[in-house]
């Protein structure tokens, strides 16, 4: 029963060592049964057809204590001496590591449970829970290379990508890529550079590329160029939330300038400019206050009008109506005497196709922003990160579904003898 609880192979027998028993700790000695046969040779030698032909037993390795988890409040330890084998043809030796992975002092089952716990817990909390050091958990996380199983997307008719960046540490940004139809996180790239995104898109299998129809991005020229260069024929959509956000940013900047120049550093009520129309109409006092502020600062009136016209443009029900309203907005901007507004209009001219593409399928990056909220929770639980690669792996373990993750083989002996984690296979 203990062997089944600890997920120990049937070819091993456990015998309790009562002389080593302590409070909260139980020790078992691992013994090999007669069912243990000769394993296959891990070395791919030329001319060797039978992988067991030249393999003989070659004693046992040094005794070591392995942590096997908890049963109730008792922590279980295994005293194990791995069986050694040797190839008579090459003289090379290897161990039959079936209880634990090489160089690790916890069992395979505990290693798999530890990786599962990393999906919901911080590195330090996981180390404390499993009774190992933080360095052990960090090294295990570093050894994991998470890859997307693209075969899971083969049955989909069309694929839509959402691409956006979020903060890893301060002003250091990383790129999040989400499949919008299924809301599954595909990747988190280690930077927000164009070359990094192009490298990822280039590695997507050809059959999957043919199914990608749209890519929703924020207003970053580097993202737009990367998608157009690597995904030919894919429609790029400028996310309307980011377009409106960019207009709000310009309005905030104009408010700051107005405060410094004409208002003697007196604060202008900024929140009034960003109230929802329905909420604003219900509160007459705020409406009067807004009108009074706009009369006192006509410079802000122009920027506020462009923001309202942009929101009016996105309320269009058809592509043609949206195009007509966008052209009206650009025309009004070009009539302005403010050079900053001219640059603003040129931005909309450059992004006209991407902005209007929104009216075709109403594709947005809202699901990417929702994923960013989940990522913020993981960052708070983990108390921040310093290394970007470790950060991307930790976050991907937390946000990607298990069925979409492929973990590489854990090396148990040398570079050829490998076993894969079973809980994700």
Detailed description of the structure:
InterPro entries: Transpos_ISL3, Transposase_DDE. It comes from Petrotoga halophila DSM 16923. Residues 161-393 form the Transposase IS204/IS1001/IS1096/IS1165 DDE domain. This is Transposase IS204/IS1001/IS1096/IS1165 DDE domain-containing protein. With 425 residues, this protein is an alpha+beta fold. The chain folds into 3 domains: 2-145 and 407-419, no CATH class; 147-239 and 364-406, Ribonuclease H-like superfamily/Ribonuclease H (Nucleotidyltransferase, domain 5, 2-Layer Sandwich), CATH 3.30.420.10; 240-361. The protein has helices at residues 2-5, 108-118, 123-130, 134-143, 194-202, 206-209, 221-230, 240-261, 277-282, 284-296, 298-314, 319-334, 339-350, 352-356, 358-361, 366-382, 388-399; strands at 12-16, 25-32, 55-60, 64-71, 74-80, 83-87, 93-95, 147-148, 159-169, 172-179, 184-189, 212-217, 235-238, 405-406, 410-413, 417-419. Helix 3 crosses helix 4. The longest helix has 22 residues, at 240-261. It starts with a helix and ends in a 6-residue tail after the last strand.
